[in-house]
Design goal:
371 residues; alpha/beta; Metallo-beta-lactamase, Chain A; seven-stranded mixed beta sheet; globular; binds zinc ion
Amino acid sequence: MRFFLLLVGLTAYLTGAAADEGLFDLTWREVAKGVFVGGRKDALRYPVVANTTIVVGRRGVLVFDGGGYAVQGEQVLEKIRAETKKPVTHLVISHWHGDHHRGAFPIIEAFPDAEIITHRFTCAAMADGPERRVEESEAQLDTTYAAVRDAVDKGIWFDGSSLSDDEKAYFARMIGDYPEYRMQLARMKVMTPTRVIDETAIIDLGGKKATLIYMGPANTAGDIALYLPKQKFLATGDIAVAPTPYGFGSYPREWARVIRQLAGLRAAIIVPGHGAVMSDDAYLQKLAALFESAADQASEQKDEEKPAFDFDAEKAAFAAGDPVKARLFDMFFVQPIASGAINEARGETDKNEPLDGAIADLCVPAISAGE
Ligand SMILES: [Zn+2]
């Protein structure tokens, strides 16, 4: 009897363990022949994990956003080796935020001849950006996580609002995930791009034409999207993030225009930078309307000392009654979008993502668009 109970307990434990997705576990889906998308199922869990796309052509393999954490880059490499004997020839980085490239180095270590491609701005931001200042960000993170723990214990968030049980559970999980996150942060490496582009470029992989689309500032000043015309496949990078968007250092007026142009491609498979794969442009249109609202509100208030934005209706639509999504919409979009939107309305976009000019020069003598 005792043995039976033990067995039941063990089975329950193993089932539970299998169902519990690891912090950096990627799940893969072949969305078109030779096109694989990997992402973590739970898009909201923190730290956020970016989606990766692998495109296998006759001549070689292109990876779009190879991973923000080394453990992710290793899974991408494993997946490539499981699917093909072809070498990785191109690693494309959608934008400079570390969750899209800091963990991709295992792919380049395995395929050192692969080109590392970014937009020129992304290259400069990778050379100069906060992603390189690991120790500084670790010390800062320890402080932030201690403050979050305190907020959860008290049940009161930094803005004085009270936390629901769902939010407490979300942030408690975030705290629980911190040791693993910190361990992966310690492993991260920022690579140096080997080829930069200023405009849209096409890479012929053999049977697949990877179009790297640049249409102007959006989520950052250097976002590249990946489009495969024959497959009607679009990977947006963080130009689109689901289920709630991010708005750090962004350009909402231009962003709305860019996203409407991407929607105009009428892709049948749309992979956002984070979140589940989509099959139509409904979410892109929802984002475009949100960014237009931010830009319009900024235009109206650009001369005011204390501009105040109102996204209550949009928040209700994006959060759909989920208090965690509502909180994340505030933290990741409403709060950060204000300064970028005001800078854009005032014509001062150089304040959005300031770079060291001397370092930015590193990315000048590079090969431009075309193969
Ligand atoms: Zn991201």
